[in-house]
Design a protein that fits this description.
The complex is a heterodimer of chains A (114) and B (116).
Chain A (H helix, E strand, L loop, with lengths): L4 E3 L2 E4 L5 E6 L6 E7 L6 E7 L2 E4 L8 E4 L6 E5 L8 E8 L8 E2 L3 E5 L1
Chain B lengths: L2 E3 L4 E5 L4 E3 L2 E3 L5 E8 L6 E7 L7 E2 L2 E6 L4 E6 L8 E9 L8 E2 L3 E6 L1
Parallel strand pairs in B: 2-12
Antiparallel strand pairs in B: 1-4, 3-9, 5-6, 5-10, 7-8, 8-9, 10-11, 10-12
The chains are: A mainly beta (114), B mainly beta (116).
Chain lengths: 114, 116
């Protein structure tokens, strides 16, 4: 079946602009995660949803970052007033159930802030 | 807080040879999962192998196997009969089974190059 998809794949934003990144998880997957991967680094956790409930947002670096999953399926990560340090690949992952622990990753959105 | 350390930024191996990637972690949890993920140049992260901490038997998946030493908090990945398609970044990751969040904590990765 279809895997996790993310759009756009690439985004260039001028500093100060707002951006919205979309994640379509695998159909039926309960859990959804967002990670930020800086160049040459491992992914770092941003936030976690179980269905529509945001259970952990401890990794969001500032209040400029906001994520939602209103119907328990598609999720959007929004970054307001983008800064150069926000440049990174944003990865979305989903897993089948709350206790499955196997996460399936999307291809990521590469955000470049100029 | 959990941490994952991969001490080998880059490694190379000849095709058909065996290579071992190292990973250590730090946690106060007793129940947890450990993973190795592969990220080819196209960037889609793929699960290679998973180990439950309560299982003493080391996990194996075809040419991939792990050496899990719980007391030493070590979790190395062995790739046998290396293939050109194994060239990728490899990330070791940890997930606690308690606390409500199943987030993965990743190491910085090891860049593996398989040479023909």
């Amino acid at each position: 079946g279809a895997g996790v998809s993310q759009s756009p794949r690439y985004k260039v934003a001028k500093r100060g602009q707002d951006v919205a990144l979309r994640c379509d998880p695998i159909s039926g997957h309960v859990s959804l995660f967002w990670y930020q991967q800086a160049l040459g680094q491992g992914p770092e956790f941003l936030t976690y949803f179980q269905n529509e409930a945001q259970l952990d947002k401890s990794g969001l670096p500032s209040d400029r970052f906001f994520a939602e999953r209103p119907e328990g399926s598609v999720s959007t990560l929004k970054i307001q007033r983008t800064q150069q340090e926000d440049s990174a690949v944003y990865l979305c992952a989903s897993s089948l159930a709350a206790a499955s622990y196997e996460q399936y990753f999307g291809p990521g959105t590469r955000l470049t802030v100029t | 807080a959990q941490t994952v350390t991969q001490s080998q930024p880059e490694m190379s191996v000849q095709e058909a040879e065996t290579v071992t990637l190292s990973c250590t972690y730090d946690t106060s949890e007793n129940n947890y999962y450990l993973f190795w993920y592969k990220q080819p140049p196209s960037r889609q992260m793929i699960l290679v192998i998973r180990q439950e901490a309560y299982k003493q038997q080391n996990a194996t998946e075809n040419r991939f196997s792990v050496n899990f030493q719980k007391a030493a908090k070590s979790f190395s990945l062995k790739i046998s009969d290396s293939q050109l398609g194994d060239t990728a970044m490899y990330f070791c990751a940890f997930s606690a089974t308690q606390g409500g969040s199943e987030k993965l904590v990743f190491g910085k990765g090891t860049k593996l190059t398989v040479n023909p």
